[in-house]
Write a structure and sequence with these properties.
The protein contains 13 helices and eight strands. The chain is an alpha/beta fold and 373 residues long. The chain has a single domain, classed as Rossmann fold. The chain binds thiamine diphosphate and magnesium ion.
């Protein structure tokens, strides 16, 4: 692992250490003669008080199922967008490991705040994908009764305080949420995801300063996917590192390989533990890559090379986790195929649910504008 706590770390994440070989992804999706999927797939959903402690069969398979669900959900979301049913869909394909490895340590009482690109955060935090897909399509059965859409998915009961279309604006909110937990004396943790573009917003620095002096239970997670729209990370982020910026605020800054669910799991375990114990915030810079364009209408090859894309896609986070599971005999190909099938079926069900749901009644246009919790 490429981890540095509390010191400068301007080295890129160490790539290829698992001796990754490309597996045939599609080969395992088609499960041969499966009689009963539920007989093969173990119960993977966590209870409220049961975040995962260790990398073992249970946590690895939960991460695998979560990441495959995200990918299938995003592929379907894109199909729905291409069919004109929603607009401005920011795909998280390629970045599945980051929220999954972190949310493995959270329970429903912990909080997550997301960005414009947040479907993966929501799924990793345990939101209902039927309601999510309905929200994307603007239907009344959605998480926000169809009034928020793809960039404003929230479910307070699951601790998902919201995706957010205003870049960087979730960071001070997460800091305030952490302050609330501290003042109330709960052991809740607040996790905020943001991009490399958002990392240069002033609010991150103000938030890290307050969180540092007050030792707030907040984890700042930068998903460095190397681009803010078409602007490369190297062009816009001075110093070449987001994690290094934590040094100025006396908090640990960590650069990790965001394509490795294992690395994300291990590092965030320590960060969550620090936050729960009252030891304060952590800044995690997870190096990752978005496979698709910024929001679907742009061609990424206009600002990045095919070779670069192929390099990052050769380190696909799902295939890397799949290899680890198979090599360690935590599950065999048939069992993983059963999970793949389960995810596809769940997304199909969500799509059907969303498409068959009604749009909100026009009379409800100005209800739910402000909600008191
Ligand atoms: C305050 C603000 N400025 C600009 C925008 C337009 N905008 C939307 S996404 C985006 C790029 C964000 O890049 P990054 O933070 O790296 O996140 P990514 O899209 O890579 O996930 C910009 C500039 C916005 N939504 N809000
Ligand atoms: Mg980015």
């Amino acid at each position: 692992m490429s981890i540095t706590f509390g010191r400068f770390s301007n080295q890129p994440a160490e790539f290829g250490k698992f001796g990754f070989q490309k597996l045939n992804w599609h080969a395992v999706i088609i499960a041969p003669n499966l009689k009963s999927i539920s007989a093969i797939v173990p119960a993977l959903r966590r209870g409220v008080e049961m975040p995962y402690e260790e990398l073992n069969k249970e946590s690895l398979l939960w991460m695998y199922e979560t990441m495959v669900t995200i990918r299938r959900f995003e592929e379907q979301s894109r199909r729905e967008a291409d069919a004109g049913k929603l607009r401005g869909m920011h795909s998280s394909i390629g970045q599945e490991a980051v929220p999954t490895g972190i949310c493995a340590h959270l329970n429903e009482k912990d909080y997550v705040l997301g960005t414009h690109r947040s479907h993966h955060h929501c799924i990793a935090k345990g939101l209902d994908i039927n309601e999510m897909m309905a929200e994307l399509l603007g239907k009344s059965t959605g998480t926000g009764k169809g009034k928020g859409g793809t960039m404003h998915i929230a479910d307070i009961n699951k601790g998902m305080l919201g995706a957010n279309g205003v870049v960087g604006s979730n960071i001070p909110v997460a800091t305030g949420v952490a302050l609330t937990a501290k003042v109330k004396g709960t052991d809740q943790v607040s996790v905020v995801f943001f991009g490399d573009g958002a990392s240069s917003q002033g609010v991150l620095h103000e938030s890290m300063n307050l969180a540092g002096i007050w030792k707030l239970p907040v984890i700042f997670v930068c998903e460095n996917n190397r681009y803010a729209e078409a602007t490369p990370f190297e062009y816009s982020v001075a110093g070449g590192s987001v994690a290094n910026r934590a040094d100025g605020y006396g908090i640990p800054g960590v650069t990790i390989d965001g394509q490795s669910a294992l690395d994300v799991f291990e590092v965030s375990k320590e960060a969550v533990s620090r936050a729960r114990m009252g030891e304060g915030p952590t800044l995690i810079e997870a190096q990752t890559y978005r496979y698709q364009g910024h929001f679907g209408a742009d061609d990424p090859l206009g600002y990045r090379s095919k070779e670069e894309q192929e390099y990052y896609m050769s380190r696909d986070c799902i295939l890397m986790l799949q290899k680890h599971i198979l090599d360690g005999a935590y599950a065999n190909e048939t069992q993983l195929a059963a999970i793949d099938m389960k995810c596809i079926e769940a997304v199909n069900t969500a799509t059907e649910f969303a498409n068959n749901s009604p749009f909100p009644d026009p009379k409800e246009l100005i209800t739910d504008v402000y909600v008191t919790y």
